[in-house]
């Protein structure tokens, strides 16, 4: 069952690659890896729809935090902070309030996964120089939704399978 779902993810990823880049989506390189991250995050989130929604919100906040870090780091560099120190200082300042979001029940691990994926899209991929915050976020969230759905399908099918097996005993 999981192998079939993984194959579906690969098919969807290949189809999306053929869509061409747009203002809200990148399709010049495979991003299926994002789906598998979000799929795993669904399990960390407790295997519930509520947990999946919380994970999605955390992904969005991770993207927003990443953008703020990049913008603030760029601004610091533009006002004379040496480039080597601009982003580390930006992280030092902005990660503190992010961590405090745990007090309002934000899923911090998913936030960090979302932020890390966003940084990867923005910096470590072909044609990264043509990537905007908007289309990187759209791409990440599209694959995130696919991964969370795959997590839900996995749990739902597994529950149905176990119910059938237990009924047969």
From TrEMBL:
Residue intervals passing through the bilayer: 31-49, 56-77, 83-101, 108-128, 140-161
Full protein name: DUF1097 domain-containing protein
Pfam families reported in the protein's UniProt record: DUF1097
Keywords, ordered alphabetically: Membrane, Transmembrane, Transmembrane helix
InterPro entries: DUF1097
Presence of keyword Transmembrane: yes
Superkingdom of the source species: Bacteria
């Amino acid at each position: 069952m999981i192998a079939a779902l993984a194959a579906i993810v690969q098919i969807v990823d290949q189809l999306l690659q053929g869509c061409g880049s747009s203002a809200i989506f990148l399709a010049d390189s495979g991003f299926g890896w994002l789906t598998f991250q979000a799929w795993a995050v669904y399990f960390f989130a407790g295997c519930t729809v509520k947990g999946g929604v919380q994970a999605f919100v955390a992904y969005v906040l991770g993207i927003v935090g990443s953008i703020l870090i990049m913008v603030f780091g760029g601004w610091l560099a533009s006002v004379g902070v040496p480039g080597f120190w601009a982003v580390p200082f930006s992280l030092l300042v902005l990660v503190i309030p992010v961590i405090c979001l745990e007090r309002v029940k934000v899923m911090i691990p998913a936030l960090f996964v979302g932020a890390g994926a966003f940084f990867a899209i923005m910096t470590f991929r072909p044609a990264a120089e043509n990537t905007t915050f908007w289309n990187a976020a759209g791409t990440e969230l599209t694959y995130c939704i696919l991964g969370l759905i795959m997590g839900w399908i996995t749990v739902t099918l597994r529950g149905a399978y176990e119910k059938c097996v237990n009924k047969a005993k």
